[in-house]
Amino acid sequence: MGLVLMLGLIMTLCLVSFAPLSYGYDPLDPNGNITIKWDIMKSEDTSYDVKVSLFNYQLFRHVEPPGWRLSWTWIGDEVIWNMFGAEATLQGNCSRFKGQLPHSCEKQPVIVDLLPGAPYNMQVANCCKGGILSSLIQDPSKYGAGFLMTVGAASTFDAGHAPSAYSIPANFTVKLPGYTCGPPLEVAPSRFPSDSGRRWTQAIGTWNVTCIFSQFRASLTPKCCVSLSAFYNSTIVPCPTCSCRCQGLPGTRCTNSSSKVPSLLQLPHDATEELPPLVSCSQHMCPIKVHWHVKQSYREYWRVKVTISNFNFAKNYSQWSLVMQHPNLRSLTQVFSFNYKPLDQHGTINDTGIFWGIQYYNDMLMHSGDDGNVQTEILLNKDATMFTFREGWAFPRKISFNGDECVMPPPEKYPRLPSSAHTTSFFRFTLLIIPCILFLMFAF
Questions:
Q1: Domain COBRA C-terminal: where (predicted)?
Q2: Domain 221-257+277-418: CATH architecture, name and number where available
Q3: What residues does each domain of the chain span?
Q4: What CATH fold (topology level) applies to the domain 27-216?
Q5: 246-257, pLDDT tens digit by residue?
Q6: Of the candidates 373, 369, 334, 367, the residue with the CA atom closest to the CA atom of residue 353
Q7: Could you tell me the pTM of the whole model?
Q8: Across residues 393-413, what is the average pLDDT?
Q9: Buried-state track 14-31, b at ≥16 Cβ within 10 A, e below 16
Q10: What is the strand order of the sheet 373-381 is part of?
Q11: Following DSSP, what letter does each residue of 129-193 receive, concatenated?
């Protein structure tokens, strides 16, 4: 019986340990997801109008350029007649129609957001951001997107009668690395205010699609690493070797010469897809490196300098975010040059916070070069119940950049206090010499 219980416990632990990889669960953002809302607004004899909305309910993970690309599979032979606030990348084969042609006849249309500055007669609320969605914390006013479209069934359009039921598409996807979307689920119809909230209208029907993120599905290799240093030790602990990938492996691109970058970046690619990383050749081969430096110690405070460096020649990181975990963050006093907000995900334990750039100042992390870094300094109060510089306590427990967890150096490599080695040697010497002295005292 004991063996059966032990095996059951082991299987449970295995399932729990693999759950974050399979389902994209993030303990720092347990409810984070991208929700697609499908609202049927109006029904005509031959078509119906749909309002499609996307909401990024993630606390610190945003959607950066080239942005979301929403796609689905029509259940019947539907076509998109008109679209406002977005556009289909392909019109497809519309040869069966005469006169005015539909906007898209694709069975699996791919929809992209309009760019800023689109014509006013094509705009709707929350459109025209180039597919960018802010996280909830960084900019709550820009976490949503939306567009309108008119849908008709090709087989019934010429016949002059309405479809018997609304066929909600299947196989939704936002075509972003690491995201998986579930099936559409019917929910209570959305309500919309008018006349300053004195009147409310509602959709004919509403369906929600939930898309979750998994770092394991997004990339088999990490995207950032961490290096460490301190004022009390001359050793700089670099990122672990091959943190993100190793030089010479298939699919790995790096260069030591900035003059070769333009030719290396001239690759045929879809304008709506991100270029593969072209990093500066290094021992860690990561696009992003975060350096944590214990800078100074005062009587009641201690100061940390954090530097984020972009080694990716192929990309500028806009609206970047940095999430750091350290027990002394609950006593954080001041942050210079960055925005900051604590992530209170563990009740009274406030050991994690999100940092991001100041708009129009350092919210854009430029590509590798002299200006390819942003820096901040953090002033923390010395919490008497826990503070120490010993045993690497002053260094972070976990760091993630844009929601991707960074590779940390092994704890045994952390910079140590210079006196730690001497203290340990003296302690060992004392343990050896005391028995000898006692032996001599009692022997004679």
A1: 223-415
A2: Sandwich (2.60)
A3: 27-216, 221-257+277-418
A4: Immunoglobulin-like (2.60.40)
A5: 988 877 888 877
A6: 334
A7: 0.82
A8: 95
A9: eeeeeeeeeebebebbee
A10: 233-237, 224-230, 288-297, 301-310, 373-381, 332-336
A11: STT-B--TTT-GGGSEEEEEEEEEEHHHHTTT---SS----EEEE---TTEEE---EEESPPEEE
